[in-house]
Design brief:
Length: 316
């Protein structure tokens, strides 16, 4: 069993990631920490509680940062956001109100306590929102970098962006946090960028398969994926009826490393000063680079294997 903490900004694809992590027999979801991102912190926390209640998972939720390190507060001007990102409309997930409540301890303190303590030694951190919480924790306690055994991040795009032509949403919302995390010296970092998540898009046939499984996790995930496909289509029958479920790819990769089919270890940085390229992930793929390598970057993924892991998780 792989123990993990999910650090997320629940939205629909984070929700599928949470349900996969809570349900898969080979995973043990220790806690969820929340951050401002797809929607304001209050809503990412509330959405997280709704999702966990919906699947009957008794997992503590620690609310984290309400705003990026130095960038303006949410709401980010909607006009700069890519209209193809359905999460931005999901202020409140279409699930019953939560009965459970968030922890009093904040996410940053929880991450520090967990990873400085002994129990953190075998807990993978999976970050699927802006990296503000982890950056704050590392800033307050630099020893943390050597204590986190493994970090898997959904963020960045090697050859694509989604908020701007070059920047992916999570890195773009808090580029200083992303750069701080990637240069902190954490020993085992994997980045699952847009290039991989879009290679593993789910289709309506996958939704039908989840519906047939019929558990609360399967049905809610199917509904969220259908919603994402509908939003991506926007009445355009010519468009492919599939959607990336970015964050869930990180969770599936933990269970089945072959969900990622091509990757490389490279120096990776995030642009924090560019006028057109703010938040861009820079992967140094030069063979002769003398920069130290800092992360494994996933370049391609297998949609069928991804869907298989989700199906296994939803069966529970
Ligand atoms: C990422 O941005 C968010 O909108 C999604 O939840 C995902 O984490 C994709 O760019
Ligand atoms: Ca997310």
């Amino acid at each position: 069993t792989t123990r993990l903490i999910l650090d997320c900004d629940t939205g629909t694809d984070d929700a599928v990631a949470i349900m996969a992590a809570a349900g898969h027999p080979e995973l043990d979801l220790v806690a969820v920490t929340t951050v401002n991102g797809n929607v304001p912190l209050e809503n990412t926390t509330d959405n997280t509680l709704r999702v966990l209640d919906h699947v009957g998972a008794d997992v503590p939720v620690y609310p984290g940062a309400a705003r990026p390190l130095i960038r303006p507060d949410f709401p980010i001007p909607r006009e700069v956001l890519n209209a193809d990102s359905p999460e931005f409309q999901v202020l409140q997930l279409d699930l019953p109100e939560a009965t459970s409540t968030a922890q009093q301890t904040g996410a940053v303190q929880f991450l520090i306590d967990t990873y400085l303590g002994d129990e953190g030694a075998d807990i993978v951190l999976v970050a699927t929102g802006p990296l503000t919480n982890l950056a704050l924790a590392l800033g307050a306690e630099p020893r943390l970098a050597a204590r986190i055994p493994r970090l898997v991040i959904m963020g960045g795009g090697h050859r694509m962006g989604n908020v701007t032509p070059t920047a992916e949403f999570n890195f773009w919302v808090d580029p200083e946090a992303a750069e701080a995390v990637l240069t902190a010296g954490i020993r085992d970092v994997t980045i699952v960028p847009l290039d991989a998540t879009h290679a593993a898009e789910l289709t309506l046939a996958d939704c039908d398969r989840f519906d047939a499984i019929g558990t609360p996790a399967a049905l809610a995930s199917s509904a969220f994926v259908r919603h994402r496909i509908d939003t991506a289509l926007r009445g355009d029958a010519e468009a492919a009826a599939s959607t990336a479920v970015h964050d869930a790819v990180c969770v599936a990769y933990l269970v089945d490393p072959e969900v990622v089919t091509r990757s490389g270890v490279h120096p990776v940085n995030v642009e924090t000063t560019g006028t057109r390229t703010l938040g861009e992930m820079i992967v140094d793929t030069r063979q002769w680079t003398t920069e130290p390598t800092t992360a494994r970057v996933a370049f391609d993924a297998d949609a069928a294997r991804f869907a298989d892991v989700l199906a296994d998780a939803f069966r529970g």
